[in-house]
Amino acid sequence: MSSYVTRKTPGNTEWFKESRFGMFIHWGLYSLPARHEWVKSRECIPEEKYDKYFKYFNPTMFDAKDWARQAKAAGMKYAVLTTKHHEGFCLFNTKYTDYNVMNTKYGKDIVKEYVDAFRAEGIKIGFYYSLIDWHHPHFTIDRIHPRRNDKNAKDLNEGRDMSIYAQYLRDQVTELLTNYGKIDILWFDYSYPDDTKQPVWTLGKGKDSWESEKLIKTARSLQPDIIIDNRADIEQDIWTPEQYQVLEWVKHKETGELVTWEACQTFSGSWGYHRDESTWKSPEMLIHMLINTVCIGGNLLMNVGPTAKGYFDKRAEKSLGVYAEWMKYNSASIYGCTQAEPEFIAPRGTRITQSNDGKRLYIHLMEYPYAFLEFQGLADKIDYAQFLHDGSEILYSLNAVDHFTQFSSESKNMVAFKLPYVKPDVTVPVIEVFLK
Ligand code: GLC
Asked: What's the CA gap between 152 and 155, in Å, rounded?
């Protein structure tokens, strides 16, 4: 059994830690302008102008089953869809605002289609729900709001009442957690509380604005096992570092305990569909990110931003295909795996994971070594080794005896793996070691 213990939290994170890999989906009206999901704020787009996207939203090529198939093929075990992003538009049927998908040309509940299709593929269901809302009439103008630069910006807050908005959050979360069966993850986004040195009307928002305690209580009363992230400004089940690769297992700030964590990342530099963005990650980067995350005990939530037509564009499909290809042969080093026990030190150019039952060790060859790979402290534990992708035996020598004596280390407990000179045709080959 793995010796790493994570901080106890209210939700059920067991399945989550087994799964390791999920699909994030950012979809909303911003897929029409196709220049970042923050476009309304970045360009300070007034309501009348943004309404055009509402008027023309009609993803005629949306096929939830196709999304679900692609997620499954990529090896993703759960998904998290933006039911509402900061723009305030709801992809679900809600009675608390007209600003929802039922009133667009498309006219069908997208959240329902998503839930049905993904569930049918055995994928666990997550809802992203934005705490920020740049459409709601009671959401006050602040420093990130699209109307912050209006001449009379601060007067616009007259009559706006965040407690009405907080009730709206509870009402919609109630709908989301009542109308779609079992929901596995609720992903709130996000809080930006400030100190009070700034002029009051520009202040950011945090747990007091969202009334997070009540909100979370509402959610848990409807779905007791649900996993909730930390972005409502109250610590819950998962910590969510965004768009960067952390270097070690995320720890609790005060207690230093290990926590359950999930890195979220994009294929390119935007969450929502971005036509002209070109920083798409290479196949190596995509696979490395997944391995880098799991080898320090985390999950990876990889994002897709569907087009306004409703499909994953070619670049996204290709990136998903990179995962599909690799996971088809190598998923055993990811599912049910975690950081290797401290006694195992990854040799240079490798990352290692270990199965939760402790019986298998996976050596990911991020830099393909030439002919031999030395691994210290393994000789007394190794029973057999093979490539994970094809099950072909990997020969090794123990304790640097006979013709291996030229190796650098004097260690009595070293294994020297003998690898083919030419790297197998796998983005990152993995050595699977069965331990005694
Ligand atoms: C951020 C952004 C957002 C994105 C999210 C994903 O907080 O505001 O656009 O949805 O991160 O983690």
From this structure: 5
Q: How far does residue 189's CA lie from ligand 1's centre (Å)? A: 7
CB of residue 184 inside a 6 A radius of ligand 1: no
Q: Is 262 in the pocket of ligand 1 (CB under 6 A)?
A: no
Q: Which residues pair with 115 in a beta bridge?
A: none
Alpha-carbon gap, residue 108 to 336, rounded angstroms: 37
Give residue 405's pLDDT band: very low, low, confident or very high (50, 70, 90).
low
Considering only CA atoms, which of 48, 30, 160, 32 is closest in space to residue 89? Answer: 30
Place of tokens 């793996």: 417
Which CATH number does 340-435 carry?
Answer: 2.60.40.1180
Would you say domain 14-337 falls under CATH 3.20.20.80? yes
Digit-coded pLDDT (tens) for 109-157 = 999 999 999 999 999 999 999 999 999 999 999 999 999 999 998 899 9
Span from the CA of 267 to the centroid of ligand 1 (angstroms): 14
Element (H, E) at 387: strand 382-387
- Residue pLDDT, tens place only, 384-403: 999 999 999 999 988 655 45
Domain boundaries, the chain: 14-337, 340-435
Q: How far away, in angstroms, is 265 Cα from ligand 1 center? A: 10
